[in-house]
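Quick illustration for those who missed Monday's session on complexes.
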Amino acid sequence: MRTKQRDSSILTLDYWTTPASNYPRQRVGDAEIATHRCARGIYECYGVGGFALFEAIKPLSITNLKIRRRVWMVDDPPHWLAMMEHARQYHGHVVCAGLGLGLIVHALAQNRAVNKITVVEINPDVIRMVKPLVPECEVVQAHFWDWSGKPDGVLYDLFTGKGRDLLDSAIAVYMGLKAKFPKSVIRIHGFNNDALVATDSWLAATGDSNLRQRWRGVVNDRDHGSAQ
Ligand SMILES: C[S@@+](CC[C@H](N)C(=O)[O-])C[C@H]1O[C@@H](n2cnc3c(N)ncnc32)[C@H](O)[C@@H]1O
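Prediction with S-adenosylmethionine bound:
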């Protein structure tokens, strides 16, 4: 699938496949799995897998999950490579916020150090449609922040679209996750997780409780999960 490497920071593709490529195209209630064509061209890879860009030298077939016609997840190169990258960081019991296309479940299933996967998904149609397509895992229908437990790892993947550049919100979510799961490996998809850890440590070191409180406040904003 990777045909040639003209520049090590560009992933060159003439074909693309992920565990979601063979999912049946279907609609269940509000949720739908569909295909879109990624036309020939150069696209952002956001540094994922070490690639700044990917180049489609032929049109690529990409799978997406829509909820009420809004795209919530795609299996394009940056997303699938990122799920693989996240999955390598965990061990033991991992809880994932959001089922989406279930790519993270496929990726975690490849990590032998992981022995239990729980996915918390708010939308029952997504669960009905996607749960049968992923490796064995526990799927709980709930708002993520209502779930409690003592997992070894947490992957938060509820930011969509342009929300990704909302670093403030990501820091707030990171702080909320740290407070709720103090012993877990925490990762938030779509952000530089090293930067989140560093910012959290810096905020703790300032000893400025107002500043911490201001960020913590954003966590209670449930706008991040409006897929109900
Ligand atoms: C970006 S997708 C997750 C993609 C997933 N990581 C994967 O590998 O395919 C986000 C999912 O979270 C769900 N969701 C949104 N808000 C939620 C919330 N507050 N609690 C639980 N699930 C939520 C959406 O219905 C959607 O299925």
